[in-house]
Automatic annotation (TrEMBL), chain A:
Pfam families: AAA_lid_2, Mg_chelatase. One of its GO terms (biological process) is bacteriochlorophyll biosynthetic process. It comes from Aerophototrophica crusticola. It is an enzyme of class 6 (ligase). The keyword Nuclease does not apply. Involved in bacteriochlorophyll biosynthesis; introduces a magnesium ion into protoporphyrin IX to yield Mg-protoporphyrin IX. Its EC number is 6.6.1.1. Belongs to the Mg-chelatase subunits D/I family. This is Mg-protoporphyrin IX chelatase. Coiled coil: none annotated. InterPro entries: AAA+_ATPase, CHLI-like, ChlI/MoxR_AAA_lid, Mg_chelatase_ATPase-isu, Mg_chelatse_chII-like_cat_dom, P-loop_NTPase. It catalyses: protoporphyrin IX + Mg(2+) + ATP + H2O = Mg-protoporphyrin IX + ADP + phosphate + 3 H(+).
Amino acid sequence: MTIDALAPVAPKRTAKAPVPPPGIPTGRRAPFPFAAIVGQEEMRQALLVAAVDPGIGGVMVFGDRGTGKSTAVRALAALLPQMPVVAGCRYGCAPDGTGGLCAECRDRAAAGPLPVAAAPVPVVDLPLGATEDRVVGALDLERALSKGEKAFEPGLLAKAHRGFLYIDEVNLLEDHLVDLLLDVAASGENVVEREGLSIRHPARFVLVGSGNPEEGELRPQLLDRFGLSVDVRTPTDLAQRVEVVKRRDAYERDPAGFTARWGREDAKLRKQVEGGRAGLSAVKVPDKALENIARLCIALGADGLRGELTLMRAARALAALEGGAKVDNGHIRRMAPAALRHRLRRNPLDEAGSGVRVERALEEVFGK
Amino acid sequence: MTDGADSGDHPWDSAARAAALFAVDPHGLGGVLLRAAPGPARDRWLGWLARLLPQGPPLRRLPVGVDDAGLLGGLDLAATLNAGRPVVSRGALAEADGGVLLLAMAERLPHGTAARLAAALDEGEVVLERDGLARRFPARVGVVALDEGIGPEERPPAALADRLAFPLDLEGLPARDPDPALPDHRAVEGARRLMPLVTADGKVAEALCAAALALGIYSLRAPLQALRAARAAAALDGRVVVLAEDASLAARLVLAPRATQVPATEDTADDPPPDPPPTGEAEEGSADPLDAPPLDDLVLAAAQAAIPAGLLALLRAGLAPKGSTSQGSRAGALQSGKGRGRPAGVRRGSPKSGLRLSVIETLRAAAPWQALRRAEAQDDRIQVRRDDFRVAKLKRRSQTTTIFVVDASGSAAFQRLAEAKGAVELLLADCYVRRDQVALLAFRAEGAELLLPPTRSLSRAKRGLAELPGGGATPLAAGIEAARLLAEGERRRGSIPGIVLLTDGKGNVARDGTKGRAKAQEDALAAAQALRGAGLPALLVDTSPFPEPAARDLAEALGAPYLALPRADAATLSTAVRAAAAAPARQAA
């Protein structure tokens, strides 16, 4: 496997040029730079790992108010390298057909090779109050009313294909939308049967949710859907808090200037993500590592195989992100809490926290 | 504000200053949480704000029950039908861009609405993904949340409160005082222009962060807001550099009301004051260079002096409102429209007998035929036929709220309280699976206390339970009455309440607080009958070691199944309660 074959088509960006970050529509305030986030190591790591290997299956961020959950996710958009898409495809199909093709692309592919273009990896917000028609897509009202045409207007699920779908305060999302998301996330395909339209298109996305457990629990089925789950806490260290306030304040006073000052750091991270993506398939997972992962999951009684698989992929992605050639115990240790803490068969009243249990099992398996 | 000398003297001074600073930077500061009963004091403050705000986008009132269409926007039906193409109606947030939203009855604001407001406050824009429309509108608004709550539990959702820089309490301020010094709106306009130029030394941020931490304020939004407020204060004074007095003022207005602890004083020199603010003298030295230790102390002292007296007493007694994070997250995941069910798709049908027409879907159904029908009818308007009608399917999920009323008095407590707690814990785990709500009421000594308002959050439930104290007399009547009020409130919100009463039935405190078994028993039975009269389903669990007639009589008055549990363990109790609790839910469905 050559690395070039997988290299993203992102153009090299110079650090200082005030280029709008790829994932963000122009005209909006530039997002807070990812590199400028203070602390919150676990959340940053989980998001970067999900960016390297989207197959890990989503990140859920639980945390206190005002810890920058949304900031981090929005910042991620600016970090993502561009991806190849079928030129002119409304669903952002991959030219090589990974993840499936929409009906249009299938027809075009039959006629000849598909034209390729580069597009930013989408990071799509699903705001509270969104209606179902906008989420799954529906008859294009404008064209229907003015021209009498029956056309499909893709929704947010189509927009998020091959990218990220972000839901802030996911525990407040209406139940029927949650059901719908679960269904699509499981099948990787959005099937629309409404208003005489019958459309199906691929919709594979990394679900990123954030929420505050004080405002109601997440449905277990939904929580299950996330590959990684991280807890963020407000830092209590004064120096760190001062740094957060100073950077945030500097950003709010001059978003463009601040983003430009952090451009070099952000570019470094972007390169790291690109490198991680490119090198992912070359990272070896030694049998010993697989064995340790299995032992860890057994020690924890983590349900099913999904935990093992996620931890293996996450550790591999972390190794790739850091330029390692193979997965070692360090990678496993660092990813284990995020990959496993929400999979423990939990006593919902045990406040001792699943994080603590993971730590204990880690010590049991790896010593120290 | 050049007359800094008399700062803090006028009782309305803080309120006036908060109004002025907020007027300078409404969106940047997020807003004001104005706790006050409707009345002259509140009107007076709002009057000042109206005078302070420069001409332009007005103060816009937002009703508490605002729906998504009203808040975020959606399809403008009349205009759409007229124009023959989709026309967007902007919601209140987009309409108020650049201005101030006045939020009535914020303590009753549903969490969903609060989260939508919070998103707009964070991003300065509204993301509309509704009715086939995908738009973004700028919404740089400030919010004045009018909090008319009475009890400590009646508070606006924390997600909103956290984003509003100034928590203001007008309670007890004299109504007839002359107005304090207020800048006029031209000064505010000047300050707005100056605002982007105002710089603050890094030490100001450090001092504000240190003060916030010392006061036990963990959200990082508070010091950020304080920093912004300090900047606004400097701009209002016509300066481009933040001085110590600005930082002190910001600490007073933004940090002090949020305190959850009295700072630990390392040196005994300055004991925490109820004595009047040292800010007066402190500000005299404002021209001093910003030396780190003095500024830190100054800011903290200013904040500490301004901690409201009532809060201070509570903090001293270690009775702080339980941690800043849990404040106000009153009702688990309260969502709008629960009473009428939530939208769950649409179907063909005519809007009759209370069915709601789904306009957008109806239009969609009609759309493909327009060319044909227009030609046929020789009319350019949109042609909608009966066949096109679509009605919203509403799913009415019967959410139940189980209210546990626990007798924590001396007679019942010591042997049984632990068991009752165990049973409640098991039931909580059950409710977690069903996503039902639970509430916890305890009665002992002088009266009934709501330990846990209806919630779906397990962490909170668990905490409330752990804190349940025991001992004292048995105000049984008060407990039953409190349960009835809570249950009726829940029913009004569209939830199905069920009451589980755990007691030995031996009340000894009458409704009016006097001791005496006979009168207490009589009152308890009367309260029980009232509960029954209200049609509330209940279950009585007798917790006395040897079942006695008192509890049985009470169960009869309640019209409730009676469950004697001599030496039953928590698991048996849980099974029994579950069986009984299932009944009312079926009844009501």
